[in-house]
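Model: Ready when you are.
Researcher: Fold this.
Model:
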Amino acid sequence: MDVELSLAMETAEDRNEQRRLTRNNLSRKQTIVNLMNGLSSYVIPKAKNFAECDVLNSEILSSSETMHTLHGNYDIDFDLISAADCIGNAEIDDLDDDQSDDNFNLINELLSSNNKQVSLPLHSYTDISTKEFCTNLLRAFRQTNLCKTYSTNMLKLINSGLPQPNNLPTSLNSLLRYMNVENLFTKRKVCLSCQFDIEYSATSCFKCISNDKTQFANVYDIDYAIVFSEIVERHIVDIAKYREKILSEKYDNINNDISFQKIYRSFLNTTFYQPFISTLIHLDGIPLDTSTKLTLWLLSCSILELPPHLRNQRKNMIILSMWVGTRQPIIKIWLRECIPSLNKLKSSGFSIRGGQKWFVYFLGLIGDCPAIKLALNHIGNNGYYSCWYCKIEGVHMCNKRQYHYEEVPTMRSINSYRSESKEAEVKGENINGHLGLSFFHEILDIPLPHSILMDYMHITLLRHTRSVVLQIYESIVPKKRSEIDYQLKFQQFPHTFNRKLKPIQSGHMKASEIKNLLLYGLLPIFYQHLQVDKAAHIALFVCAIRIDFALQKIINQQEVDNGKRNEGAFDITRLSINNIDELLSWHKRVCDCNQTATCIIIYHRCVIKNQTYHSLSYPKRQSTNSYFVKYTNDRRDTLFGAIELSFTYKNSTLALINNYPNEHLFSDVFASSSYHSSLSKYINTYFYLLQAKPSSFHYVPIHKILNICVVFEKDDFIIVTPISPVYEHD
């Protein structure tokens, strides 16, 4: 009996093992099919003998070999990291800027020049053209984010399964050449020991006899004329429209974009070439790998004649040059080919379709402190004379450099900046913070230091605001800190907020989280734990930043919205009006009909100025609060309340709002402060103190709803702050 049982168990185990292997084989085949993104439709219908050939997993493994891609000095594609790093370091982009659409649009643009190419069949047993197959294959590679090495391996694998001979390219480079994809990048390798260029495929430097990979850096430069011409052709209408606004003085006082400011206005009076675009140069670095300390430094620029919502899109940010290495870039080595090429482009211009010649200007430089230090050839931000604009020396106190406030600081002028830079270059010394000439002074059309732009994210958020918050947090007793962290963690925001608030105790906070804390949460959450004067001083800082955002009026926001969605209610609810006494009584007052079910239709959500508003009846709102709003009435009073539901009545859309009355002015909290008179002019525009419970229902047409609000609940009252423009928090 035991023998029979053991035999039965062995047989069952063999069957299970066979089933497992079969499932694994099918899974591997399906993975390959998914990577090819629908290329299974290219089955050979005429060759039945090929349909009977089932490539098993073992055959795939035996037929696939490791392919090494040879890199030349001038190449179509480039790898920033190895094939293994492509998988290990793959990240998901959390920014909502339609990455997949960008990829497909880029492919379509790259392939547009190939329309007239005569394409042969893929092989003699099919009518599918080589061009059609390669186009879909290239789209599949981009959609799956395959690196160059794995793309070449996939091409080899597909080629091995096709009838021989065939016209399929055998490497990614040959595929791109066949599709007439333009060569946009040149690449070179630099030895950091001797600072000379070496062969890109070389593994050692023959000049200094060094084979240490950490002493090599890769530099990638783009074909500037092609990239600039393509972007101008794509947005020539947008550039013309925005230039008209820039030249019209009626927008000067209601728009804080750089193109409407004093320095740009003075630049317009000095331009010689027409038509032209002006750009803002951006320099920054980011680590690629923590184990090898590999970093990527990116030199890019944006076109100032594009509206902000187009200017900041990834596809419109022009990459000028890249540095990939384990050390900070040496600017003169990195940009010794880039800067002369940009100078040549400035003098000769670039042509677009139709033969029209355009010119380019470089107006400013922006980046964080380490990046600007490299770009300006200036002392670091913790040294003596570290300011880019003035000559404040600084003193060493308490183990750190401190810079005392000066009412009338000595500013750096254009002449002094240039003369001191030249003196530092000649003597090789630190002259008032200058270490030498900046490599960018050759191409900047606005002279230094006027062309240096302050970086809002690093200076205001990551530096000043974070330091203020940490000092305030540390001055509060531990028990109160726990209460503050709890409020921050569970604070509700509208659904449009990509990031909420983190407890300060959790550590690192991103710039967007600090911005939301500064604009909305800092004052309502912290003011009760601080002295009145200190809280009032912080309130002035918060109001100043919010006023800066308010200067960007709705004029540009309307261009962003583009009327993508019609205003009105949507997402019809199953609620019956017969169960809502407030609506029934209102209907009896305004209408004589008996068909309440058809006269009034109830909805969960509504769209106002292309902004979606929720209601308390919306079941999927979860922890978001997109229903508490600021609105007005016929007397133009400022009111606040929660949307209970939206409904339509005789072609009109209204909201049933539960009104929360005002308790008192928020500025009254700071009545005993010396800042009260200055603060009361602004604080009551951004923060409101309301009663904790609603008092009555209002029936409000949706066009009288003004803003979504962020609500901070206290024991006996609530504090609300409207989101001024829709884009303020993002």
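Researcher: Now this one.
Model:
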Amino acid sequence: MIEATGNPDAIPVALELARPRGRVIILGSPRGSQQ
């Protein structure tokens, strides 16, 4: 899965969808505080 939106809310969703043996590539550049 490639996440390139820059939306920080999409990252946990991408990780959940790729489990347990998938790979996630994060290309977005979110701004602001992250949890």
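Researcher: Key takeaway?
Model: DSSP finds one helix and two strands in the chain.
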